[in-house]
Write a structure and sequence with these properties.
By secondary structure, the protein is an alpha+beta fold. It has helices at 3-8, 30-33, 127-134, 137-146, 157-161, 171-209, 263-270, 283-293, 339-347, 349-361, 369-373, 383-421; strands spanning 14-15, 26-29, 34-38, 53-56, 61-62, 65-66, 72-74, 86-87, 92-95, 103-105, 111-113, 117-122, 164-167, 232-235, 240-243, 258-261, 280-281, 301-304, 312-314, 322-323, 328-333, 376-379, 430-431.
Length: 432
């Protein structure tokens, strides 16, 4: 053990009672525990549909999950394929290019390893404990810092093999920790599936509640509106004045005051994700803009027009911020349409397909003020029907938000538990 390790004492803050007297953990580089094997350079011409073997590429390796739904397939093994490029259940994989340091376990049969995906072959270590030791932010951040070309670059074998793990000396303690964290992983997976089910249900319901692009009647209609007539094709400019903000120069940005949002903050707002404001403007400038140019008010919309296109945020009564011109469009409500109903119209395929189609025409994908004005959508002529649809979809969004928060809390709990179950500087053992 290194002198540094001896001084700090490799003992976790939280320990299962039967291992409280099991002594300090030890430091081991990954290269002493496992051998890294590289994949095979499959040519794209070898991929076919409905093949027997799934070829696992970088895109299939996510943090904690092997995504095989979109994996390319081949019917037969190439003649020069090596044994280690054939994957077994529970093999541990790591992404070595692009978003490096992602770890996952193989959970399906008949998989082959493509290039720039590594397989870690263990030498007698506990597979489940080793996986948990690597599938965390600490490891990913370390790998990203060592990647040639930055976090989106290439990862060398030596960078992985030199990474130091903390390990208990008794196999039983390794297994106990692995079982504890695996049970949390199972719960997280279950809750993530529930979230995906809710999102799928909402998407399917929207396709029923809104007419298809070439239709004027939805497939599903509330009973009281079945004789309310056809929906009408409208332009966004029929209900909104489309523009942008008063330009705020970078020299007027401050480190405190009123939040000043760009596209990235808009995206977080639209997803109801927590975020911290990075840029502000002064109270004096905010008052000046308010008095001379006006501010977004409840029922208005802010729309991303550059980069991540077509993300919308419905302005709320309690909002107090300003936003960057050019990148963000401002839809000022004129009335005639329920604001929340329009929010879901904007999410639906009819508008989103137009945005993507317009953006693909230009060299740099943008959604412009002029394009926004003439974007079409199909609208119910009845405000009551609009509000009924809005209430229905809002109730599902509330369920999605609650499920998202539940999933986030579980992930936070696991992260905190790992900080307790694995040694840290100055750690003092507690009891699990």
């Amino acid at each position: 053990m290194s002198n540094k390790a001896q001084k700090r004492g490799l003992i976790p803050k939280l320990r299962f009672h039967e291992f409280r007297d099991a002594g300090e953990w030890v430091e081991k580089p990954v290269g002493r525990i496992a051998t890294l094997r590289n994949g095979f350079a499959f040519k794209s011409s070898t991929y076919i549909d409905n093949g027997r073997y799934k070829v696992i590429t970088i895109g299939n390796v996510q943090a904690g999950a092997l995504l095989t739904e979109d994996a390319k397939t081949i019917s037969d093994l190439p003649r020069d394929i090596q044994f280690h490029q054939q994957l077994q259940i529970s093999d541990i994989l790591i992404s070595m290019t692009g978003n490096v340091g992602r770890i996952c376990c193989v959970d399906v049969e008949n998989c082959l390893l493509n290039q720039r995906v590594g397989k870690l072959v263990l030498h007698g270590a506990n597979n489940a404990f080793f996986y948990q030791s690597l599938n965390n932010d600490r490891f990913r951040e370390a790998m990203q810092s060592k990647a040639a070309g930055g976090a989106q670059g290439n990862l060398s074998s030596s960078a992985i093999e030199e990474y130091v793990l903390f390990m208990p000396q008794e196999d039983g303690e390794q297994q106990k920790i692995a079982d504890c964290l695996a049970s949390l992983d199972e719960r997280i997976t279950l809750e993530a599936q529930k979230l995906d089910t809710l999102k799928t249900h909402k998407k399917g319901l929207m396709q029923q509640l809104f007419p298809a692009e070439v239709e004027t009647l939805p497939k599903l209609r509330f009973p009281e509106f079945r004789d309310a007539g056809e929906w009408e094709k409208k332009l966004i400019e029929d209900f909104f004045d489309v523009g942008s903000s008063k330009r705020v120069l970078q020299q007027d940005w401050t480190t405190q005051g009123v939040p000043f949002y760009r596209t990235r903050e808009l995206v977080s707002l639209s997803k109801n994700e927590p975020f911290g404001s990075e840029i502000f403007i002064s109270e004096a400038l905010f008052r000046e803009i308010s008095e001379n140019y006006g501010l977004p008010t409840e029922g208005d919309f802010l729309i991303s027009g550059v980069g991540t296109l077509g993300v919308s945020y419905q302005v709320q009564a309690q909002d107090r911020f300003y936003f960057k011109d050019g990148n963000v469009l401002w839809f000022k409500a004129k009335g005639g349409v329920d604001s929340t109903f329009f929010k879901y119209c904007f999410e639906a395929d009819e508008i989103q397909n137009q945005i993507m189609g317009q953006a693909s025409i230009s060299t740099v994908g943008t959604y412009t003020i002029q394009n926004a004005k003439v974007t079409k959508f199909t609208c119910s002529p009845s405000i009551d029907e609009q509000q009924k649809i809005a209430v229905c979809l809002t109730s599902i969004d509330d369920l999605i938000t609650a499920q998202t928060q539940k999933l986030t809390a579980l992930k936070t709990h696991k992260k905190g538990l790992m900080q307790q179950l694995f040694p840290s500087v100055g750690g003092v053992a507690g009891e699990a």
